[in-house]
């Protein structure tokens, strides 16, 4: 004997997982008898497992008697995709933070709103105090402007008309026409010149893929007196954005 201990396995869990694999392979639904045969399980065991899985929301029974995946599994899948995206992109955000000494943000436009995926900061450059969320203050942030600038006019108009443009600082742009004209600068960057918080400026670049499946933005924030340094790193921001686009597409 090599002394290697075999892991302790729970047979009932294995049976449930094998049964789930069979259910996944039949998206239109399959009756319990067919599932039992394909999973090589006794019919009684299959019924017990299906009832338990249905109680927990992992499978559901159709009116015709077939079994399909339940809503809870779909929720777990969506959460898992989000975590995989986070695991892929955070190293790139951290590297940019360490190189430029700024707080770094990554957000996407999803289901009509702005979703902040991740933020990395440090003891010297803290993230902006998000007293007003990015979704409610897109007009006042470089991140929000960058995302709005990637939408077509009907989608952008719908977004802006459904939200009140809050006047957060003396520099906040609350006129919709003026805002639309200044979403993206000639250098391809979007800016927040102390429009969200006094003393803080932000710069953002688009994060998108060729297929149009991703509408995202990479942004950095810093003290107002450091804006020139961040502007000088525009090429580095675009390089990181291109990397994020590739990484997010893998999730």
What does this structure look like?
The chain has helices at residues 11-24, 32-39, 43-55, 71-100, 142-150, 153-161, 176-181, 227-232, 234-249, and strands spanning 59-61, 67-69, 103-110, 113-120, 190-193, 200-208, 215-223. With 251 residues, the chain is an alpha+beta fold. It folds into two domains: 11-69, Arc Repressor Mutant, subunit A (Orthogonal Bundle), CATH 1.10.10; 81-249, Beta-Lactamase. The strands form two sheets. A five-stranded antiparallel beta sheet has the order 4-3-7-6-5, with helices on both faces. Strands 1-2 form a two-stranded antiparallel ribbon. A hairpin with a 5-residue loop joins β1 (59-61) and β2 (67-69). The chain is elongated and about 70 Å long. The model has no long low-confidence stretch (mean pLDDT 84).
Summarize this structure briefly:
It contains nine helices and seven strands; from the N terminus they run αααββαββαααβββαα. The relative contact order is 0.11. It is an alpha+beta fold.
